[in-house]
Design goal:
Structural class: mainly alpha
Strand content: under 5%
Radius of gyration: 25 Å
Shape: elongated
Number of helices: 5
Strand order of the largest sheet: 1-2
Number of strands: 2
Distance between the termini: 61 Å
Largest sheet: 2 strands, antiparallel
Helix content: 55-70%
Length: 110
C-alpha cells in the first residue's frame, strides 16, 4: 500500500539523515515508526505506560499527544446522579463554608 504524509521540514530532514545513516529507505523507516506506534497504542489500551529504562539516565516516559488522548479517553466513567444530589452539590459549591482547622494550619504554614 502506498501512503503519503506531510511532515514538518525538520522531521523530514531527520528522516533523510537517519535513512542514510542506517542504509535504509525512508519507506522502511516509516514502516518501523508505524510498527512502534501500533505497539504503543496496544499497550496504552491495556492500561500500560511506555517507559525507557536502563543506562545511566533515569527512566523516561515516552508520550505523544495521541497516546495521551487515548489514555485519557480509555478510562471514561459515566457518572449518574439523581437530581436531588446534583442540586446538593451545586448548593455546596455556592456555600461559603468556614475553613477547617487543618486548612487554617496549612494556610498559616505557607
Amino acid at each position: 500500500m502506498r501512503v503519503e504524509a506531510t511532515v514538518p521540514d525538520s522531521r523530514g530532514e531527520v528522516l533523510a539523515e537517519l535513512a542514510k545513516e542506517l542504509g535504509a529507505s525512508r519507506s522502511q523507516l516509516v514502516d518501523e515508526a508505524l510498527t512502534l506506534f501500533f505497539k504503543a497504542v496496544m499497550e496504552v489500551r491495556r492500561g500500560r505506560r511506555l517507559v525507557s529504562k536502563g543506562g545511566k539516565e533515569p527512566e523516561c516516559e515516552l508520550v505523544t499527544p495521541t497516546l495521551t488522548q487515548l489514555e485519557w479517553t480509555a478510562h471514561r466513567t459515566v457518572l449518574t446522579l439523581p437530581a436531588a444530589e446534583v442540586e446538593r452539590v451545586a448548593e455546596l459549591l455556592q456555600s461559603q463554608a468556614e475553613p477547617t482547622p487543618a486548612l487554617k494550619r496549612i494556610m498559616k504554614a505557607s
